[in-house]
């Protein structure tokens, strides 16, 4: 019998807690945004913006990692490719109270490529495995060990080889990662902007489904291009969860619909959900936060509803003015409510 202690394995995540999640999005999924999404979707798993491991170690942690207790469960997404630094950052994130540490293997921006992390890591499964092993070991020493997960693409550039994708996953899984969020398209590292890289390379959900079929012990969450409740629900027949990015941000009521449909409860009207933000908003204003930093995340709440454009306009124009406070939000809600008044009498 070997006396060497077995390599630590990261804790797993309860399947129900993986079903619905909101993607990590730079400049979008900050703490204010996550508090809003939490009110809409009590069962969703939320992800931070990507933070580079170096920034976690050397930067202003309160600014980079600060969160509100209502956000849980919330994951910290790390960028980086140096196992020792990622391990240190993972431990800091676990100690800070994050419920999961996620490694970004999917971001295609030039800045990220220059730093040799993000999507180009799809070509370096050994390095990702070393990083994951170090992160799992570091997280295991935290007071509360947390799962280490990976968000990846199917490949980069012209890799259209399912076996290569699965080999990447197998190598990383062996290092202790049991949960993969698959943005189900390639990243093209040359010639496409990050935005185009979320739209142009074709989606291949079937690869994520096949991975789940062939590796049933892994938890596989599908991401990419999920636009509505029907599409999101369809993924649950083939994978452990659906992660929504842009649709969740631009039409956040969708999160509420999905939460109620998948976990039960009563649909709440948009205005009521928004009014639940009031104590948070007022506490933030009292701390010197400007309304515009919170209200920008709320603009899509009434998307596709009568009064939705006016709601957006009132909030986006007014929130920049000095002294803007909760009264402005009420003003915007009132507009939508005036549209919702029943017609006096159909002619
Ligand atoms: C504004 C924006 C910022 C993003 N930032 C990140 C990021 O920091 N880390 C990451 O893994 N993906 C990032 N993504 C990609 C999303 O997490 C997601 O994989 C992608 O948008 C596809 O999902 P969707 O079609 O549901 O939006 C970002 C996407 C957007 C729109």
UniProtKB/TrEMBL annotation:
Limits of the DUS-like FMN-binding domain: 22-325
Keywords (A to Z) from UniProt: Flavoprotein, FMN, NADP, Oxidoreductase, RNA-binding, tRNA processing, tRNA-binding
CDD domains reported for this sequence: DUS_like_FMN (cd02801)
Organism superkingdom: Bacteria
Pfam families documented for this protein: Dus
Record-listed E.C. numbers: 1.3.1.91
Annotated site residues (Interacts with tRNA) in this chain: 104, 195, 198, 309, 312
Top EC category: oxidoreductase
Binding residues annotated for FMN, in chain numbering: 24-26, 77, 151, 183, 223-225, 245-246
A GO molecular-function descriptor: flavin adenine dinucleotide binding
Reactions catalysed, as given in the entry: 5,6-dihydrouridine(20) in tRNA + NAD(+) = uridine(20) in tRNA + NADH + H(+); 5,6-dihydrouridine(20a) in tRNA + NADP(+) = uridine(20a) in tRNA + NADPH + H(+); 5,6-dihydrouridine(20) in tRNA + NADP(+) = uridine(20) in tRNA + NADPH + H(+); 5,6-dihydrouridine(20a) in tRNA + NAD(+) = uridine(20a) in tRNA + NADH + H(+)
Catalytic center residues: 107 (proton donor)
InterPro entries (alphabetical): Aldolase_TIM, DUS-like_FMN-bd, DusA, tRNA_hU_synthase_CS
Required cofactor names: FMN
Coiled-coil portions: none
Record-linked HAMAP family: DusA_subfam
Family: Belongs to the Dus family. DusA subfamily.
Main function: Catalyzes the synthesis of 5,6-dihydrouridine (D), a modified base found in the D-loop of most tRNAs, via the reduction of the C5-C6 double bond in target uridines. Specifically modifies U20 and U20a in tRNAs.
Protein name: tRNA-dihydrouridine(20/20a) synthase
Gene: dusA
């Amino acid at each position: 019998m070997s006396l060497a202690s077995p390599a630590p394995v990261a804790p797993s995540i309860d399947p129900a807690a993986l079903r619905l999640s909101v993607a990590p999005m730079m400049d979008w999924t900050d703490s204010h945004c996550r508090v809003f999404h939490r009110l809409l979707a009590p069962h969703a798993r939320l992800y931070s913006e990507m933070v580079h491991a170096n920034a976690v170690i050397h930067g202003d942690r309160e600014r980079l990692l600060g969160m509100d207790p209502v956000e849980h469960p919330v994951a910290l997404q790390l960028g980086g490719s140096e196992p020792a630094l990622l391990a240190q950052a993972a431990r800091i994130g676990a100690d800070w109270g994050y419920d999961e540490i996620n490694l970004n293997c999917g971001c295609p921006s030039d800045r990220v490529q220059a730093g040799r992390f993000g999507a180009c890591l799809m070509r370096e499964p050994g390095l990702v495995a070393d990083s994951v092993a170090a992160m799992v070991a570091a997280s295991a020493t935290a007071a509360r060990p947390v799962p280490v997960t990976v968000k990846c693409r199917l490949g980069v550039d012209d890799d259209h080889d399912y076996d290569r994708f699965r080999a990447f996953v197998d190598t990383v899984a062996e290092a202790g990662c049991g949960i993969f969020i698959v943005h189900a398209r390639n990243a093209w590292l040359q010639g496409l902007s990050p935005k185009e890289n979320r739209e142009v390379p074709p989606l291949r959900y079937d690869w994520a489904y096949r991975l789940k079929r062939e590796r049933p012990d892994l938890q596989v969450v599908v991401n990419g291009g999920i636009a509505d409740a029907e599409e999101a629900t369809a993924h649950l027949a083939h994978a452990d969860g659906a992660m929504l990015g842009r649709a969740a941000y631009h039409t956040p009521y969708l999160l509420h619909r999905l939460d109620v449909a998948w976990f039960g409860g009563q649909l709440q009207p948009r205005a009521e959900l928004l009014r639940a933000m009031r104590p948070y908003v007022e506490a933030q204003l009292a701390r010197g936060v400007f309304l515009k930093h919170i209200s920008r995340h709320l603009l899509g709440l009434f998307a596709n509803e009568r009064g939705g454009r006016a709601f957006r306009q009132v909030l986006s124009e007014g929130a920049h003015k000095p002294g803007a406070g909760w009264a402005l939000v009420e003003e915007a809600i009132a507009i939508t409510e005036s549209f919702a008044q029943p017609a006096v009498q159909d002619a």
